[in-house]
Amino acid sequence: MSNNPAVLLMEGSDFETFPAGGQLTMARCLMKLYGDRLALVGLTRGSEPVGRWTRKEIGGVSYWFFPVSRREPSAGRPLIPARLEFYRGLRRHREGVLSLACKAAFLQAPEALLAVQGWDWDSLCFWFAGVESPLKVSRYPIPGPIRRWFDRALFSALDEVDVILAAAGESAINTLVLRSNGRLARERVNQLPTCVDTTEFHPRRAADARAELAIPPDCSVFVNSGRIGRLKGWELLIDAFEEFRRTDPKALLCFVGDGEDRPLLEARIRERDLSSSVRIAGFQKPAQIAAYLNAADAAVFGSFVEGWSVSMLEALACGKPIVTTRVSGADAMVVPGQNGYIVDNRDPAQFAQAMRSTLRLSTAARVSTSIADGFSLSQLGARLGALWPPLLTTVTT
Predict the structure, then answer these.
(1) Architecture category of domain 206-373 in CATH
(2) H or E element, residue 101
(3) Most exposed of 71, 257, 382, 393 (fewest Cβ within 10 Å)?
(4) Does domain 7-195+376-391 have CATH number 3.90.1150.150?
(5) Which tens digits make up the pLDDT trace of 378-394?
């Protein structure tokens, strides 16, 4: 085959819009950096034939694309978990994937690493999008023994990986190393935060964004972007927002995203009589997410755990202050009293007070955009190329 890509990017997504989240965002950033030097191994929602290399145009670039399965979008819990389906697809189509004669691969998903171990690679790079066990934060109830087996299998598979990256703070990485029970040495794990595409996420006039989204110009607006799931802490955000409205009843809270807990969130909104004050926008393309962020006075995040939050970086790039719980990476993105606040406990009253205080920060736009600049695409390319030789000389931007 022609064009001889340098690296296979293997990800359980269609590399366009599904499934939304940090891993897809990272994949899209890599595609912008390296263009058709990457070949894509993922899934399809369209007409591409499963189990064959075809050409797929994304963002004006033609890629070699190999879908290992077909998947329909679902915000809930499909009968067969997406991770399992992607694992099975990779195992089923090993010969077809390797027929491109590309022997280096970049992986983000543990199930992908487990599927392709022993495939006689020249070089593997694995990036932990989050260092929590994916089975521990799964939408499905997974028994403890299976989670422990999965961990042992994952840390064993990492023996075949040349470069290990983690989008997490130092304490979270240390916890990952401890979880390996001596199998993974700390010096093998390189901290590599996620990045933000500032061509898509950048400041705009709030009045213009609000007019585009039919948001009143004279109210306080808070935005949460990302998956609507228990671990993302939507319950705290609703409780804190209700407390905030005691002094600002015209305020608006927007959830930009979707997920398995959306019916529970909708029920809570009705129960609290907040239907006119809370908007659920559902999954949106980057341009619409950026519009909501630019319409906001601040972004709010109530997560229990995070890797290195892509959603926070997108808010920073739009010049917005942040109110967040203390999760991995927050200390590097939020300077308390300058571009937001980190709330150490899950007390709705304290979170609401931080929301009020954030509206009075005069330095937020400057500080937030300055921090976001340190996580740009060019910064990612320089860091990644220095760590993993197959991507050292292939940057296209």
Answers:
(1) 3-Layer(aba) Sandwich (3.40)
(2) none
(3) 393
(4) no
(5) 888 889 989 999 988 55
